[in-house]
Design brief:
This protein is an alpha+beta fold and about 190 residues long. About 45% of the residues lie in helices and about 10% in strands. It has a single domain, classed as Jann2411-like domain (Jann2411-like fold, Orthogonal Bundle). It has helices spanning about 20-25, 40-50, 60-85, 90-100, 120-135, 170-185, and strands at about 5-10, 10, 25, 35, 105-110, 115-120, 145, 155. Helix 3 runs parallel beside helix 5 (about 120-135). The longest helix is centred in the middle third of the chain and has 23 residues, at about 60-85.
Length: about 190
Amino acid sequence: MAVKAEIRDGFKFRGGSPALDLAATVVGRLGATPRDLLATPADLDRWLVAAELAEGPPGSTEGNLVQARSLREALYRLGLSRAQGVALPDVDRDLLNGYAALPAASLQLDTDGRARLSGDVRGLLAELAREGVSLLGGDFWHRIRQCEGPPCAVLFVDTSRKGDRRWCSMSACGNKAKVAEWRKRERG
């Protein structure tokens, strides 16, 4: 089984869940000048393809972009609540449930034997919402973490055996932390 790249078409896929990967489409979320990677409908199309939810650009509209951003922010706040062990915000829970109740893209077995989603952007967002509900309310809700690498805000599912993973990616934030710790020891 091939390992998928952590960065595809300029988007980070380090969350272990498409729902958390959508939440990672704001760069520098904790900084003074966060940057939205979903700036246009074409960006949303690119993300859906990079996330392997669509074969090709599904034709996102401005309305779809607004929906995706609201879903993203609800998923981020709900995931952060799980990571911090606090109550889930009712407004975000209701919004997520509303998207999850919409008709989702259908899963179909393609001629090449692979499972693929088929549907419009709204259906793909509904599928993402269902993924979020399954994650946030399923068996791994207690394994949702926020990366400890400053200033990273990426949320991820900790699938390590001990449940003590600290970084969204060992090759990115984990490596930076280890290098910084090594330099600190060398100076001290």
